[in-house]
């Protein structure tokens, strides 16, 4: 299903790649995405629980790690040079790709702020369940932007995930932290929902950018695109930090941090690394397969994040949250069962086409 909606350039490049290499890349990006979606929110919540109060600082951390990507990019460049490709450039991104990446980067910065604000108000287990609705937005925008087609199982999955979020919204009183007002809780809820909707738009937009690209899309180019997007997202959050005078607050907040000044900076550094794994893994999944699969993997890993939050932070897990989680898992199973049936049907009838244009 996924490979039917990737770009022509991407298909041509994938044809040249060995099946083993494509599988390795897919698994590598899935692992990075898993590390990011589980580790990132946990470290951010730890920052707020232990005395951190700066939303813009925490937002900035999500993409400030973009210089890390120069390490694999330079390794790839040197490898190509050694293998007799003197025309290889370290940075080959052309203006037709640079401009949309810059725009998507600014939008990513806004996602960072909305999501971080929500996480500062909500328990991780609640936030993760709301983020699961991103799949519905990704599916909708994938239909509009890249003409993704859906089976009944996919539609059912999207519906169940949406209902799960509604259950949380209607029973907020059982989950709201004691120190949090009802208004603050709803602010966090709708900020997180807004972040999910916007990132649900960004993933298919990246796929559309691949489709419209006028140069071959390689994994090295994907890393370049992620550098550009992260750079502009970081600039967006840097402006917010300057307006909010957050740079001056770093030393004071570090000194007053509940578990020590050194630990404060370690948490910030690790948070940056985890989120860079997430964003590279997400765009890498779009490159290897599709925006819809990237959204599916994110949604599938969220129950792991919820479980870790309950384990490490002893968050409440009332019946309503359990019902929401059950609906989410039901949605995931529905999607993958539909995929399994489609693959099985295709084996028996080779003329069956993937549900995509």
Automatic annotation (TrEMBL):
Transmembrane region(s): 24-43, 55-77, 97-115, 127-146, 153-170, 190-210, 222-243, 263-285, 292-313, 319-338
Record's keyword terms, sorted: Membrane, Transmembrane, Transmembrane helix, Transport
Name this protein carries in UniProt: Probable purine permease
Membrane topology: Multi-pass membrane protein
InterPro entries per record: EmrE-like, PUP_plant
An example molecular function term from Gene Ontology annotations: purine nucleoside transmembrane transporter activity
Cellular-component GO terms for this entry: membrane
Subcellular location: Membrane
Family the entry assigns: Belongs to the purine permeases (TC 2.A.7.14) family.
Coiled-coil region: none
Record flagged with keyword Transmembrane: yes
